Amino acid sequence: MHSTEERMAMDRRALLRSAILLVGGTAAGVPAELFAQGPAAAKAKQFFTPAQFLVLDEVAETIIPKTDTPGARDAGVPAALDALMTNWASAKRQQEFRALLDDMGRSAAGEGAASIRALTPAKRLDFVRRYDAAKMEAKDPVYGRFKELVMTLYYLSEPGATQELRYELSPGKWEAFTTIGPDTRAWAV
Amino acid sequence: MEFDAIVVGSGMSGGWAAKELTEKGLKTLVIERGRHLEHGADYTDSLSPWELQNYGLVNEAEAAEDYGIQSQCYAFSTATKHLWVKDSDHPYTTAEGKPFMWIRGYHLGGRSIMWARQSYRLSEMDFESNAKDGHGSDWPIRYKDMAPWYDHVENFAGISGSKEGLPQLPDGQFLPPMELTGAEKDFKAKLEAAYPTRKLIIGRCAHLTEAKPHHEELGRIQCQYRSLCERGCSYGSYFSSLSATLPAAERTGNLTVVTDAIAHSVIYDPKTGKASGVRVIDAKTKQGRTYEGKVIFLCASAIPTAQILLNSKSEAFPNGLANRSDAVGRYLMDHLSGLGAGGTYPGFEGNYHRGRRPNGFYIPRYRNVTEPADFHRGYGFQGGVMRDNWRRGIGRAGVGAEFKQSLRSPGPWRISVGGFGEMLPRPDNRVTLHPTKTDKWGIPLVHIECSLGENDKKMIAQVNADAKEMLERAGATDIYVRKHYGGLGLGIHEMGTAHMGKDPTKSVLNQYNQAHDVPNLFITDGACMASGGCQNPSLSYMAMSARGAHFAAEFLRAGKI
Lengths: 189, 561
What we know:
The complex is a heterodimer. Chain A is mainly alpha-helical. Chain A has 8 helices and 2 strands; from the N terminus they run αβαααααααβ. Chain A starts with a helix and ends in a 10-residue tail after the last strand. Chain B is an alpha/beta fold. Chain B is globular, with a radius of gyration of 23 Å.
């Protein structure tokens, strides 16, 4: 905002405020922290067990790996999804996601290594690809939502939205029909 | 405390009534049931997606327990949760088997903060419709009565649009139109070739595509194309009570606003035959108190306005104030919404768009205008053709670097058209007071009985058939058809519960939005609508409010009321 605009906005707020007859009411605004991801959310106790979190971490990074841009792990997707379990998920969903990660962990163990992390990267990719294909083929709603969340948390994260893709908080104008090349990235939103 | 005028409600209609009345020199009190909302400070439009609490996802248990109805609104997220009522705090009842999703926000500015900003005039055929097909009461006004008031509110609010010369959708005082995407222009050409009397135009919306001096005076600037509108706009780029009408009212020095004051009833004085004031309950203390005024405007939105009237019982009005017609609460309408179709729009791989246009295209009504139908009235479509992004990967198999790479570039163009249909006014679609249940302030609960009629059902089927056919004929692929999503209320266009009419024995308001039975009582919110048209109604509420305020002030000055 330019300073003139800022001043005008301030004046208008002051004007409107002066009109308010507060009858037992409160003038307090809603603090922005209420809406933002605060440090409190980040510090919340981990929801998943260490074994479950390990599976989540490996699977998320395998679905969206680090390439020339950050992958799910560097974008903080596993921690963000764990926080969603505490701050968003219903009891039913919490249970479903724990069961899903347990199932993925068990299935990975069937691939001949102690855990999903012990698999070679090539074998891990092969395992997650087969698991994903089977679940998507079966239209499994729990895995479907899990994958959707991994994607959402990645593409709406700052690295996902601004390094892998593009995001502008305030575009300033509307260009209805631009010409693009083969390397043009999509808008995250 | 005595005022010249009292306005109940601070949303779309109340803000306008307050602006006009104060500008005419009337000391005006605005009563708002909700809390104070601070323009800018209480908005969340500065947050990027990764800064939003839970990435926008509202806690599932909380959404189910406290926001069972509100969470069905498309604009409900952690960024806007504070702008919707807690259903658990504000219950209402509905008739068995007739759900009605009542979407509400209780705060200064009301739903003018979260509205979808589409702004269309009603036309002569809308004002004639009841008289012609016999449903509802004949409007006591015609388009010519409204035209200057549409001009007036469009100029002040700032409405972007294009002049098209369509009789069913009159042109207005427009700011420059937003541009269609190339794919939308292509769709327009194909549509208009396939259906010579259908038109596709850019949506008309309450956004400043250019800020004029009278907008800048209020601190409003040009739209920045963020499309975060339902979070509130700190730039004041779209019209709301907080960005425009209330600040304009305030600078007259004639405005007083009281928040957290729930209108309980309007007090009637049998000696004068007029309303003398408004009884309110303090939302915090639950104490009652009264404000006196020479003229009363009810702008509480259609359902609460009916509730207040029905709760204003006296010896003279045993069935509720201004209700000798028994029409108060009846003829409840919404727009049929959530209909239409979508699909993939082939081609244009070398093109994209930049910025987020808070608007789409509009296909004005053609049924019973240029094309026949086996039902009365008609519908319009809102839509867009934009390129998909990473979301096209949701629901698809694929993992790894290849998957990531495949979602890096823009996806195919997607087309979506959504119908908005006119519901017929029917007396049995009705708001009453619950006979026994009251809210936590002791006010009888609203009971809603509203359902689709045969005409509405026929229309829904045709909306979907038309949408599908238009997409097919334009060459779209992967076409899916949407159903009426969940039901009535989700159009968020409640109307008709204290409608205007010529006959005082059948309607509530006269041609001035003045109650037939109570000369100093005016109603200019959606309750006043004798029919709904298929156009988004807010612009009409604005114009009705400005017009009603004009007559009220004139009558007051002349000593008539």
